Amino acid sequence: MANKRIDMLNIKQLLRLYTQGVSKLQISKQLGISRNTAKKYISLFHEHQLTYEELIQLSDEDLDDLFDTPPVDIRDNENVKKQLESLFPYISKELKRVGVTRYLLWEEYIEKHPSDYRYSRFCHHYREWCKKVNPSMHIEHKAGDKLFVDYTGKKAPHY
Predict the structure, then answer these.
(1) For residue 145, pLDDT beyond 80
(2) pLDDT of 76-125, one tens digit each?
(3) What is the pLDDT of residues 47-77, one digit of tens each?
(4) Is 10:25 a contact under the CB 8 Å cutoff?
(5) What b-and-e string marks burial along 60-80, b requiring 16 or more CB atoms within 10 Å of the CB?
(6) With the C-alpha atoms ordered 18, 22, 28, 34, is the resulting torsion angle positive or negative?
(7) Measuring CA to CA, which residue among 37, 43, 39, 33 is closest to residue 66?
(8) Are 70 and 125 in contact (CB under 8 A)?
(9) Which of 76, 57, 61 lies closest to 15, judged by CA?
(10) Is 119 in a helix, a strand, or coil?
(11) Residue 18 DSSP symbol
């Protein structure tokens, strides 16, 4: 499960094994946690610049406060999403211009809002908005009956 915290006993075991020189992969296998989780707690251990002996002396509550890193999930922030959705009409209009891409528009967006959505989430929300605003219809075509050419970019030269 994503962002599920491990208990203090496992954190203490993790740090004990790490200070004994056990690899992150072996620690993760022994404790039944992911290697990234082990890496996260080890990096937090290094950030606080405590020795293992000092860490063991702390109570579980103090240790919990020390390693308490609530996940920052911008996807749950409705204000950021509403702010982004207010830009979608402009984005939709700009995408009709030659040479303008979603990536280019995202770069403009991220310059103004550096801590907001990354590109994949930006595109996800834009696609969802397009589905609501521009519903489409499926049209049946016989195979080989018609030829459709889709071209993006500057006009192709024809002689």
Answers:
(1) yes
(2) 578 888 888 999 999 999 999 988 999 999 999 989 888 788 888 899 99
(3) 878 888 888 888 888 887 777 754 445 555 7
(4) no
(5) eeebeebbeeeeeeeeeeeeb
(6) positive
(7) 43
(8) no
(9) 57
(10) helix
(11) H
pTM: 0.44
With contact defined as beta carbons under 8 Å apart, do 42 and 14 qualify?
A: yes
| Dist. CA 153–CA 100, nearest whole Å | 9
> What pLDDT is recorded for position 73?
52
Residue 80: HSE in the Cβ half-sphere, 13 Å Cα cutoff: 17
Place of tokens 């996807």: 75
Chain position carrying tokens 């208990």: 7
CB-based contact 18:45 (threshold 8 Å): yes
Cα–Cα distance between 32 and 30 in angstroms, integer?
6
